[in-house]
Amino acid sequence: MLKKADFAAVSQGAPSQNFLAPAAAWNSATVRGTLIARNDPTQVYKMGSSSFTADYTIAKGTKVTTSGSIGGGGVEYRICSIVDGPKAGSTGYMKVPDLQDKGDGSAMVALPVPDVHVLDVEATLNAGVTGSFKFSSKLPKGTRVVPTRAHHDGGREGREGREGREGREGREGHQEVDQGRGRPRDRNRRLRRCHAR
User: Fold this and answer.
1) Which residue stretches of the chain are H helix?
2) CB 70: neighbour CB atoms within 10 A?
3) Which residue in 184, 187, 182, 193 sits closest to 169, CA to CA?
4) Helix-, strand-, coil-residue percentages of the chain, each rounded to 5
5) What is the pTM of this model?
6) For residue 47, what are the CA distances in angstroms to 21, 39, 53, 93?
7) With contact defined as beta carbons under 8 Å apart, do 154 and 188 qualify?
8) Which ranges in the chain are annotated with CATH 2.30.30?
9) Rounded CA gap, 110 and 147, in Å?
């Protein structure tokens, strides 16, 4: 009998730690690289009519390539070709635990992992900011925030004689609109914007 599963939102903004931790681990991983023999020596098998039997051995670190897998007697074997060493060019079957990834594969396609911070005390958003941009809100302890931008003093450019619109913006205090909230922000003050999550 089918039963409806209830879901609840974990986060309305930045992903939860249950996503961020695995995503960070994924981003530090690599795709499969060169396969080498793990043991010294490593056994290579041949397939008989009903089972796998020992055929020859290769030295630890010998490079191999694989083209598929097959099971026998509850054990998974990889179909292998030997790349280097005295048995280069030979083929056979190797147990999966006897193979080792050298770790030289290329990087994974990175997942986006925002820089999430957690407030350890109550804070006021934009505390101390004056001028055309002044939106404040109490953020309780434990609020998750993501720093998004730092604004630098644009007035200096105007005072030092930059021509055209950029110079006027520097002298007059150019304002930009936060598209997410529709509120202006003063670019002449250095401030760090955060999104509460």
Assistant:
1) 17-28, 155-159, 164-172
2) 12
3) 187
4) 15, 35, 50
5) 0.52
6) 43, 21, 6, 8
7) yes
8) 35-101
9) 20
CATH of range 35-101; options 2.30.30, 2.60.40, 2.40.160, 3.10.450: 2.30.30
The pLDDT tens digits along the chain (197 residues) read: 898 988 888 887 788 888 899 999 999 989 999 999 999 999 999 998 888 999 999 999 999 999 999 998 899 999 999 999 999 999 999 999 999 999 899 999 999 888 888 899 998 887 777 766 666 788 899 888 888 765 544 444 444 443 443 443 333 333 333 333 334 344 333 334 555 55
Q: How far, in Å, CA of 150 to CA of 24, rounded?
A: 25
**97 to 25, 39, 55, 151, 152: CA distances (angstroms):** 23, 10, 17, 54, 56
Other CB atoms within 10 A of residue 63 CB? 16
